Amino acid sequence: MTLLNNAALAQEIPMRENACALIMHGLNTNPERMSDIAALLDANNFKTLIGRLTGHDKKHLPNEVISSEQWKTDFMSQWKEATSECSGEKQQRVFVGYSLGALTALTSFDTDKGLQLPTKMILFSPAITFRFSVNAIRALSWLPFGSLPSVNHPDYRARPWTSLKSYKALFQLHDEWYGSRWKNTSKIPTLVVLSAKDELVDSQQLAEEIVSLQQRTWAVQWVSNEKSELRPRYHHLMIDRVSLGHLAWQNLSGTMTQFLRGKLSGKEQNAQ
Is 265's pLDDT higher than 70? Predict the structure, then answer.
């Protein structure tokens, strides 16, 4: 394991000559908990990096700056690093993002003209449509300082508290993406993994938008973590075998493998 610049976590995985991938975590999620996804990419012989956005170390770092611009800078530098050996037209560049990580990538891809696009994406609960409970935090996010208790599971969170600066950056990214939504990413084959009971992302609204805006290269995969033994259980959290449940993860892994190998049609998938 090596470290990228700006404290990004890089996990080296054996490489297939033409396959590179970047994985990006969610808000206040420990990047190391994305390891099951990395293992799946490993099994498909991708050279993979697990990225880290500023503010997602376990301890506050000196001169730490949390902002939407900083997160885009983090993402773009790590994306370029992860795909530096896979820039050719016939080479695979896969992005896998969860929640905030998915939003940061979409904002960067849809607003930056010079950023090379991925050939495929897998997005877990992308933070692009919010439930009311999340939108209610928007007003608080403009306060100059302060934090809220993390709503993430203790075993998965990076820090016990989520700063209001982090929420402010989240909403700024969302608003920026919404102004250019799907400008560049609409033609990228994308598997979107959603839970109908997601507490934070309005998954039904997102699925309807994908259909109504005719994002035909985007396929929705509905999953359920009802059989997960993790307690407390959060439906927004479904990024590995423990949080999703053994059988559901096994089924989703099969779907993701088919998608990576180009065998998945662009149709909405049933819940596992």
Answer: no
pLDDT in tens, 76-96: 999 999 999 898 878 899 999
pLDDT of residue 113: 83
Q: What gap in Å lies between CA 207 and CA 212, rounded to an integer?
A: 9
Q: Which domains does the chain have, with CATH numbers?
A: 2-260 (3.40.50.1820)
- Whether the upstream peptide bond of residue 118 has omega within 30° of 0, thus cis, is no
Structure tokens at 200: 């934070």
Nearest to 102 by CA among 244, 236, 5, 227: 236
Among the ranges given (11-20, 55-64, 104-113, 186-195), the one the predictor scored with the smallest mean pLDDT? 11-20
Say what the pTM is. 0.90
Residues 149, 161 contacting (CB under 8 angstroms): yes
Q: What is the dihedral of CA 193, 197, 203, 205, to 10 degrees?
A: 150
Proportion of the chain above pLDDT 90, given as a percent: 74
Torsion sign (Cα): 105, 70, 151, 141: negative
Question: Both ends of the chain: CA-CA distance in Å?
Answer: 33
Q: How far apart are CA 85 and CA 213, in angstroms?
A: 34
- Residue 220, helix vs strand vs coil: strand
Residue in 87, 57, 259, 50 with CA at minimum distance from that of residue 163: 57
Q: Which residue has the tokens 């054996």?
A: 14
- Quickly tell me which residue has 């891809």 as its tokens: 109
